[in-house]
Each structure stands twice: as structure tokens, then as C-alpha cells.
Amino acid sequence: MIIKRNPLTWFEKLYIPALIGGFKVTLSHFFKKKVTMQYPEEKWTVPEGYRGAPYLVKDEKDRTKCVSCQLCEFVCPPKAIKITPPGPEVNAERGNIEKEPEQFEINMLRCIFCGYCQEVCPEEAIFLQKDYSLTGESREEMIYDKTTLLELGGVKESNIKKWDKKAADAKAQQSH
Amino acid sequence: MANETTKAEIKPVETVTVKVDGSRVEVPKTTPDWQGNPIPTTILQACKMVGKEIPHYCYHPKLPVAGNCRMCLVEVGMPAMGRDRKPILNQDGTPKIQKGVLPYDPSLPRGAIACATPVAPNMEIHTDSDNTKMMREGILESLLINHPLDCTICDQAGECKLQEYSMEHGQAKSQFVETKVSKPKQVDLGPRIMLDDERCVLCTRCIRFTRDVAHDDALGIVNRGSYNTIAAYPGSKFDNNYTLNTVDLCPVGALTSKDFRFQMRVWFMKETESICTSCSTGCNIKVGSRENKVYRYEPRDNDAVNASWMCDEGRLNYKWVHREDRLKECLIRNHNSESRSVEWVTIIQELSERLSKCEKGSVAILASARASNEELYLIKLLADHFEAITDCVPRKGEGDDFLVQSDKNPNSNGARAIGIAFSEMGIQIPEIDEGISEGRIKTLLSFGENITRVGMNDELLAKLDLLVVSDILGSHAADKADFLLPGCAHLEKRGSFVNEKGRVQKFMKAVEAPGKARPDWEWLRELVVHVTNEKPADTLPGLFNEMSANNAAFGGIQWKDLGSLGTDIKI
Fold first, then answer.
1. Is A166 within 8 Å of B182 when comparing Cβ atoms?
2. Residue B182: which of A87, A122, A169 has the nearest Cβ?
3. N or C: which end of chain A has fewer CB within 10 A?
4. Per-residue pLDDT tens listing for chain A (176 residues)
5. A to B CB pairs, distance under 8 Å
6. Which ipTM value was assigned to this complex?
7. Do B237 and B273 fall into the same domain?
């Protein structure tokens, strides 16, 4: 198909009207509210439910919620998570929550922020939080260990206090 | 007459016709029980024969039947009998089937436990009917009433029958609103076993195993009703040499191995078929490993060797594989005792140059009865070339009347069959000692043994012109060797052993060897090619076949004949 092109009219050939039109748009934006941000000095506040970097959380009693069940390690598509289980030594401090990871590493270079770890976690111990820009100077630095993850994760309270309930039940039955 | 005897010999197996899920099947009237004695075929066995799995906890083919978990309940119908003791027939001539119902409420089914109910002619078994499903749901609900559901911290998760059956046959939701009975956790039953009473479903498999198979009546159930717990008898410990089998038997996570506790989740582990090397029984095992780390041994079923069991000593004897003092370098030492680390190509080349200068009859070879048949065959080729005097180091320990043998070498019979060692193992060692001290023997090749432990001291070794040592772990002899070649543990290579009773069994590779360590048969073959003019097969199965063809004792069996359970030879 051949499209017929009309030749430019005399008025159009002047170009000046088009220039003025352009300047008008620019000038109108000069007085409007800005839509851009001065990244990285200014940072975007992400909405609720945003899937940023996964961090470990503690419960309100400052205990590590993770029990080292390794389901996140299993489900993680890019294999970014590596957990070292605690071994057979009994940790009396943990009470009836017998297990806690000895080491918990997430390779943030591998992590794809898919959120499977959060979804699979039976203890609600790992959450995708609001950090989206992680930087480091080496690959090793980008492997976050347990201490770092817990520090960044903070405390997350939960209504389901199953371990405390179990401990309370056991204690109540002891007195019989 | 002759005709009659042949008829008697091929007596047909007596069968019973039953209906399983609507299809008529013929099953033998008797089947072997846990000890191999014929007993009337049970419903569970009959269903297994026709490929229908019935869920069960307390039943185990190698243990006496207890019938206490009720998981194997199935709906069963029997031909109805009239007063004249003849089956009542339907209008179409088929026998009328009467289904079991509860006497006080005929609308409810009365199931039969499949593990302990023998089949009867014309019996109808329903493994999949609504009533069977309902009974299974009920049993699972009752088992889960006091179960703590702490799967997240339970080592059994992933291989737990309670998990599996709950998913397959259970209800999605619990109706139980009361408080669960709390029982002791982390109970120390014995040196290798930790018990979590809350998880126990009281199937008594552990009790029956230790009483009837291990013959140590150590466990029992104490307390009443919901407070039932498994316990060792007061004042005694559950510490026989077979305790860890109860961990395998436990269908839930109640009995846990202290060694494996909280080490690795089972679904990550790769299972490799292998052989235990702790004694000459050669128990069949599964090696659980992940990312080149071995986490556990488990027995593998083989009725000709170890049934479903293995001893604790053998099961826990794997940690040396990851020891720090594993040999990882090929070392050549000069006369000033300065050593240099070289590549395999260099060490094989230099070693074969040195060896080819050796005179015939001036060489002694001390091999190990822990080496595989293929390796011993290659060593034998070297020995024949040098007309060398050979022997293996005997390893004696305590045996028992169940699985453990007093001969702690896994391949003594292989070494004998190939001609490296003789009926009395170690009989040549004093002669080798004498030969060295008299100067007749100038070269000593030691494969996989610490020769200083069999009385060869520094003074004796100093008289040698050439000492070649290949080993897995560091030793004093390894420090003295002119040529040191790092070898592989059996978990890091393939091969075969001949056990105490003459069963040839193969083992497969589970993990990679550390550093430069290489499967011994690989570099032994290179050495044989360089030193002698022979060209042995360059694959492991090929080497086995060649070894078998050249040693009458093996009767020409092939690698592929070994299968996963091995095959018997005459020794």
C-alpha cells in the first residue's frame, strides 16, 4: 500500500509555530509539581506488600524465629539460601523450640526476590522487606549471614504463639 | 515309580481365591512370616502380592506381628453360611457376601486388621472403599490427637509415615479442641538414641526388634492410657550394638539418632548404594550424602546378608572419611627427606621408572584386605611381574552371633581368591620382615596399610632402597615413603568386595575425593601399564570382568551379574 504524503504547507515550513508549541509545554512543566526524584539522595518509599530483600525476624521475646527446617533452602529457585543446622547438642536456652540454625546465609546476588521463602516458612521467620537496593564492594560482602539478616529484619510480632502455648500446656500438666 | 516322585517334587502351591477390590486373584495359601516359616497368608501380604499397598505402622515384614496400630484396617466381606454350613447363594448363583458390621450398630463397618487376618476362600477385600477410607481417617485422627505436630523441628520429616499417611488418607482439619497431653521430650534412652515421647505412636516396632531380633529385652511401655511412653527398664540403658536400627524402624520421629540429630534434612540427601566396610559381613547400606559430605549410613534390605539391619558400630564408622589428616598430595621424597608435591602424571612416570629397575624377587607387596577386588587384581599383576612376595594385614576383633564378624577386613576373601593373601592372613609378614633385614628385599610397596603398625620399624624401613606407600589417612609410614600416593575411601570410588560367606557385592561412589586423591584402581592401572607390558581394561566393570575371568574362584561372573544385591561364589 502506498500512502500519499501531503507536502508541507507554507505555514508549516516556517517551523516557528512548532517551536513555540514545544516551549509552551516545557514552560508549563516548569511551574508544575516535580515527578522525578533525586535518587540516590532521595529514596522511594515502597508500598505495603512490596517484595524487597528477604530478612530473618525475631519474635517479641527476642528469640530467633527460624527453627532451621530448611524448607526455604529447598524451595529457593536460584539456590540463594544456605542453612547450617545446629547438630545434636541440646541448647537449653531454646526451651521447647529445640532447633535454631547455626548459620543462615542468603546470597543477595543470587536472590530473585520471588518470595517463595516467605510463603513456605512454617514459622513465619523470614519476610521480604522493603530494601530494594543492596550494594557491596565484593561478592563475599553480598552473602548476608545470620547476624546481618537478623539485624536488618528486626522484630515481627505474631498472634500465633504456638511454641509458648505448647510450653504453657506442658507446664500446666506438670503440676498435676 | 519314577513318575510319581517327580510329581511329588513339583507339588503345586496351594492357593486361595480372594477378591481384592472387585477382581478375583489367586494367592498362595501360606507365605513366609518374619522368620521365614510358612504361615497362612494375611490380607496385607495378599494385597501386596497383587500390588495394593495397605498403610501400616506396627507391621514390619522382618518383625513379629503385633496388630496394635490399627492403621491397616480394611473392610472385609465373607461368604455367608446357612445353617447347613453351606454358602448361601444369590439369585444369580454367586455366593452371598456378608460384610463385617459392628454388633451394636450394624450401620457401621467392622474392619479387619490386614496384618494379622488370614485370607479365606472367596473373601472380599476392599482396600479403597468408602468404609475403609473412613476407618483410616478415624485411626489417623486418633493417632494425631496427642501428636505434637512439630514437623518443623523433627528429623523424621520427609520420611515420616505419619506425615505421608496424613496427606494420603487423613483429614485436612483437626476437630480436637482440648489440650494435647504433653510427654517428655529429649529422653536419653541410651548412648546413641534420643526419644521424643510426644511423637511416639506406640507401634512397638522398637520393642519387638530389640526383644526378638537383637535379643536384648531392653524396652517396654510404661504408664497408662494417654500417658503410655516407651522406656528402657529402670536402671538399664538401651545400649546394645543394634540400637540404631530402631531409629530406622520408628515410623515417626520418636526415636532419633544422636549422631544424625539436627544435622541435615532428609530430602536433601543423595542415597548411594554401598557396602559397610567395618567387618567382613559386608552389610548392604545406603549412604546419605549432600554436597560431598556424608551424613549417615542406613541398612539396605538384602536377605542374603543383613536382612534389614546393621550394627551401630558399622553405621557410625564413616567420619574418618572427612578427617583432616586425609592424604591429598602426591609426594616424592628424595634421599635428604625433602619432599615435593607433584602431579599424578609425574609421580606415575617417575615411580614406574624406579620400579622398572627393580630386580625380580627383590620386591615385597603389602596390600590391604580393605581394597576392592579390582585393585587387588591390579596389585596381583604387579606382584606377578616382580615375582614379589605378597600379603595383607589381618584385622581381628570381636564378633557376635548376629551380624558382626571377628574379621574386620571387608574383603579378606577377595584377597584370598585373587591370590594376594592366604588362608591365614598375615602369615608372610614375618618373612617380609626377615627379607628386608637380610637385604633380600629392596623394595616395599604398601597399599592402604600403615606398615609401622605390623611391626616394621624405622630401622627396618631404612634398609629399603625404595618405599612406596599409598594410603587414605596420614601415618608414620606415609611420612617415610619415597613415593606417596593418596588413595580413596570406598565412598569415593566404585568397586566390589567378597564377604565372609563368599558373596560378591559392589559399592558405588557417593562423594568426591579430597585434593588430588584418586580412585586407586585408576592409578594402579596406569602403573601396571607403565611397569609391565600388560594392558588391563580401562573401566571398572571391565576390570572386574577381567579379574573374574582370570580367577577361577569367581566362576566367570560379570559386573552386570552383581546387581544391587550381589551374587554368591564358592570360596
1. yes
2. A169
3. N
4. 899 999 989 988 899 999 999 999 999 999 999 888 898 899 888 999 899 999 999 999 899 999 999 999 999 999 999 999 999 988 888 888 889 999 999 999 999 999 999 999 999 999 999 999 899 999 999 999 999 999 999 999 888 888 999 999 999 988 65
5. 55
6. 0.85
7. yes
